[in-house]
UniProtKB/TrEMBL annotation:
Subcellular locations according to the entry: Membrane
Source organism, top-level taxon: Eukaryota
Signal recorded as keyword: yes
Signal peptide: 1-34
Protein's name according to its UniProt entry: Wall-associated receptor kinase galacturonan-binding domain-containing protein
GO CC annotation terms, alphabetical: membrane
Domain Wall-associated receptor kinase galacturonan-binding span(s) in chain numbering: 38-96
PANTHER family per the UniProt record, alphabetical: WALL-ASSOCIATED RECEPTOR KINASE CARBOXY-TERMINAL PROTEIN-RELATED, WALL-ASSOCIATED RECEPTOR KINASE GALACTURONAN-BINDING PROTEIN
Classification via InterPro entries: WAK_GUB
UniProt keyword terms in alphabetical order: Signal
Organism in which the protein naturally occurs: Zingiber officinale
Primary localization class, coarse: membrane
């Protein structure tokens, strides 16, 4: 009896570990195959789908966009480079910082136009766009700025239609109360500034959608600021606003389901570096649908099954 127990135990161990191996092997083959995970880290930030730091990873619409430089995550688009302060995967938002933009405590302005503003390559516009709750405040724009010219459809009384307005409760009237404006002598009277003989306002606030490209020098402005509000409760006063650029990211509807289906079969989502089309990375093969599909990977799947049986035979 006393002798039998260890034997039974050993047998039991052997059987259960064999069952374990048999159960885990397919998963092992699959994950080993797809072990080149595309998730990466930069500083304390996780870079995951649709973003990626490696070519071929993530979604093609976000290729050549993020770079990790000495632990600092940077975003690069046509208008310049920005520091990424946050990636909000739950709400599909990015928070960017442009060191050359003004905030409540300092105005950054130069006759040539300071700061990146925000503009993406035409092909990328479908994927990345400032949030409608983000206000851009253009500072020191010249009277001949396109901001004050090209907006026809005078609403009433023949007044020129200006795009300047409050966005999500944030606007220039409030921004002028910031310490940054002390001694700047801006026209504080809001209404007097709009289309009056006094000239254009020192600050013009607008939503990105109003002009679809914030190019500070093209708009003939000296600088800009940007703030956003996320909470349903408005931040009290411009000193409490969050300064930065809040960008919403999205995939076209017809490309939304691809990654979920790929991941469900153990794949990692990527894209073809030549065509930029969606690609499910299954390790030993790449699929244009998912890792269970035979299309493009039938031979390799068969090899995987053969390997699985070889393992079992070796074990026995
Ligand atoms: C990362 O660290 C910075 C400070 O170093 C902090 O402000 C920020 O909230 C952190 N971000 C995340 C996502 O943990
Ligand atoms: C699959 O695609 C990725 C990304 O384009 C590439 O790096 C990898 O070499 C491809 N693998 C195979 C087996 O073709
Ligand atoms: C912004 O405008 C300037 C001057 O018109 C131009 O040279 C520059 O290419 C523009 N930037 C972008 C990102 O289009
Ligand atoms: C913007 O909001 C401020 C303060 O709430 C208000 O005084 C001002 O009239 C508004 N400006 C415009 C252009 O609506």
């Amino acid at each position: 009896m006393a002798e039998a127990a260890p034997f039974l135990l050993r047998l039991n161990n052997g059987v259960s570990s064999m069952i374990c191996v048999l159960l885990l092997l397919p998963a092992f083959l699959r994950t080993a195959a797809a072990s080149s995970s595309c998730r990466s880290y930069c500083g304390n930030m996780t870079v995951d789908y649709p973003f990626a730091l490696r070519p071929g990873c993530g979604h093609g619409g976000f290729r050549e966009l993020l770079y990790c430089i000495n632990g600092v995550l940077m975003l690069h688009i046509a208008s310049g480079s920005y520091r990424v302060l946050d990636i909000d995967y739950a709400y599909a938002g990015l928070t960017l910082h442009d060191p050359a933009m003004s905030d409540c405590y300092s105005l950054a302005r130069s006759p040539d136009g300071l700061g990146n503003g925000f503009e993406v390559e035409a092909w990328r516009a479908a994927y990345l766009r400032p949030d409608p709750d983000n206000v851009f405040m253009l500072i020191g724009c010249r009277p001949d700025s396109p901001l004050f010219q090209g907006f026809p459809a005078p609403s009433r009384g023949g007044r020129r239609h200006l795009p300047c307005r409050n966005v999500s409760g944030m606007g220039c009237e409030e921004y002028y109360r910031c310490p940054a404006w002390d001694g700047e002598g801006q026209p504080r009277a809001g209404e007097a500034a709009y289309g009056s003989p006094v000239g254009p306002p020192q600050c013009c606030a607008l939503e990105f959608g109003a002009i679809r490209a914030i190019n500070v020098s093209k708009l003939r402005c000296e600088g800009y600021s940007s703030a956003y509000s996320l909470a349903p409760v408005r931040a009290a006063g411009p000193g409490a606003w969050a300064y930065g650029i809040r960008v919403a990211y999205s995939l076209p509807a017809d490309q939304e389901g691809f990654c979920g289906a790929c991941q469900a079969t153990g794949g990692v989502c990527g894209y073809d570096q030549e065509t930029n089309a969606d690609l499910c990375l299954c390790g030993r093969f790449n699929s244009t649908s998912n890792c269970d599909s035979t299309a493009g990977g039938a031979g390799v799947s068969a090899a995987g099954i053969k390997l699985y049986f070889i393992f079992i035979i070796l074990y026995l």
